[in-house]
Amino acid sequence: MSRFLKEPQTDKTSEAHVEASLGLTIGASSMQGWRESMEDAELVDTKLPGLANVALLAIFDGHGGDFIAKETAKQIVDQIVSTDDYNAYDGTNPYALVSALSEAFLRTDDALREAHTDGTADEVGATGLVVLVTKYHIISANVGDSRCILSDKSGHVPIQMSLDHKPDHEAEKLRILAAGGTVFRGR
């Protein structure tokens, strides 16, 4: 498990990306904070195979280390673009991309679990958020409590684009229990 530093590491790593075809300027910034090491991974990909004018933005928040977050960031694009729904996307049906994201999260989880049958991945994990921006749609998919919030140009009207997967939401609690998990003290 990660340990905490005596003082937070406040240096920031920042980068900017421009995707002119979508009218986007994308900023990404990360800070280690109190953790012994940076446990998060981010991903910006504006050149997805086979699709023009689509940007992928993602953040993976490592829990118990950076292993799952970094591995997910490495694998998620390949998992998305290998789905039938991604390859069937014609620029008009956003539900194909919704399905592709859902399937990619499941495939990535399976791939990580299968690659680490020795138990190295049992005590670590990550939450994740992937957003696809097309010319006409913004599609978000999340796992855990990584969330997507959209704001209007004024910055004053936030729009919730995702729902946290936390056991204090009844549907999530039922999903955990149905999968054989337990919920103790709200966790």
Automatic annotation (TrEMBL):
Gene Ontology cellular component annotations, sorted alphabetically? membrane
The superkingdom of the source organism is: Eukaryota
- Recall the GO molecular function terms of this protein's record: metal ion binding; protein serine/threonine phosphatase activity
Localization? Membrane
The residue ranges of the PPM-type phosphatase domain are 25-187
Under the heading Pfam families, the entry gives:
PP2C
Give the record's membrane topology: Peripheral membrane protein
Q: Which InterPro entries match?
A: PP2C, PP2C_BS, PPM-type-like_dom_sf, PPM-type_phosphatase-like_dom
Major place of localization?
A: membrane
Coiled coil ranges: none
UniProt keywords, alphabetically? Hydrolase, Metal-binding, Protein phosphatase
What family classification does the UniProt entry report for this protein? Belongs to the PP2C family.
Q: What is this protein called?
A: PPM-type phosphatase domain-containing protein
